[in-house]
Amino acid sequence: MIERYSYPEMRSLWEPESKFGKWLEVELLVAEGLAAIGVIPDWAARDLRQHARFEVSRIYEIEGDVPGYQPRPGETPVRHDLIAFLKAVMENLGPEARYLHYGVTSYDIEDTALSLLLRESADLLLGDIDALIEAIRERAREHKFTPMMGRTHGVHAEPITFGHKLAVWLAEMQRNRTRLEQAREMVSVCKISGAVGTYANIDPRVEEYVAAHTGLAPALASTQIVQRDRHAQYVATLAIIAASLEQFATEIRNLQRTEILEVEEPFRKGQRGSSAMPHKRNPMMDERITGLARVMRSYVIPALENIATWHERDLSNSAVERLILPDCNILLDYMLRRFTEVMRGLVVYPENMAANLERLRGLVYAQQVMLALVEKGMDKDEAYQLVQGHAMAAWEEGKDFRALLAADPRLTALLAPADLEAAFDLQHHLRHLDRVFARLGI
User: Fold this and answer.
1) Rounded to two decimals, what is the model's pTM?
2) Within 13 Å of residue 28, how many CA atoms lie on the same side as its CB?
3) Which H or E run includes 149?
4) Protein fold of 106-356
5) Residues of the chain where predicted confidence (pLDDT) is lower than 70
6) Catalytic residue set
7) Which of 202, 158, 73 has the alpha carbon at shortest distance from 371?
8) What element of type H or E holds 296?
9) Are the C-beta atoms of 200 and 194 separated by less than 8 Å?
């Protein structure tokens, strides 16, 4: 899945080289923080910065628990990723090696590095969201006054415009951006507090040093790990964004149905929709986004279950996160980018929208007629029943709704021909679009 549904910037961020590189940077900052407060010699921090390096393959050899990698002859596998990492780095060091990983525990390094990975992932995703917001804004502006049928329960309701539909999507994506900013802040914490979070063997000033040099905030209180409610919020936020994309993609799929055909996702020259039927132009990208949103939601449950750990920590969250955290970031990055392509290339058929708007021969203006009668003094329920009776006759017998109304003396006693004409005015439904669009800066 990672190879098929990924773009290189996000994928490379979660590659082992990147992960171990962030581990090393945190280790070096810890050493520099220790030197800054006089716990280790300045030369040791300088030499660590100068000489520390690693090879991913060597880490895996030392760990001895990675498929495809075996320990060297005479080596006993350590079966611990961070210890393997440290031993691989130490092979390239001199006397300064004894000051590497001084006074800290594994998850001081791993969780702080994970925060850096999540923050950088969030930044990429925020860029994706900005691109999608701009694509939606451009299409909303283009179709601000393109009238179409508004539907509730899948049934014709009242007129809207395609631009208004897109304005709703734009507002939702703006909320999603705010959610992701909040989730980014929630996971942007460092924890350099030792084996159970009490700073027993590491001065809190070292954590402050690391925080200052990474832009992370020190966790106000921690155990051996950063608490997983933060990560659960992050994963849930990504799943909500994916659900929004599913909502938009599902709408496009529905509007692309042959019987409706008001919009169509881009179909490129040379593209094929079916191995059997040469005529098919299927909404394949929107269907893919809909399906992948289900995968995104599946990450939320394990993220929530990771919150519960035994005492000051256990290992139950670790293997889960190695799967879900890279995958959810990589997958949402893919979904956002592909749906942005859909929006930019979306084919819109205003003539079909207009035809569908007239399909019920004026029934969609029933509420305006009812309210016009109420304004002239008729009881609301009486007006409802009068209009509904003619609407049902028009629906079931294929008659012209407006003609039925015009022939009813109960209606003509209150509404002049001009009043009835006004009740069937499409512009009545579009008169507040400017206000909605102004709120969204369109």
Assistant:
1) 0.94
2) 18
3) strand 147-152
4) Fumarase C; Chain A, domain 2 (1.20.200)
5) 1-3, 274
6) 153, 274
7) 158
8) helix 284-298
9) yes
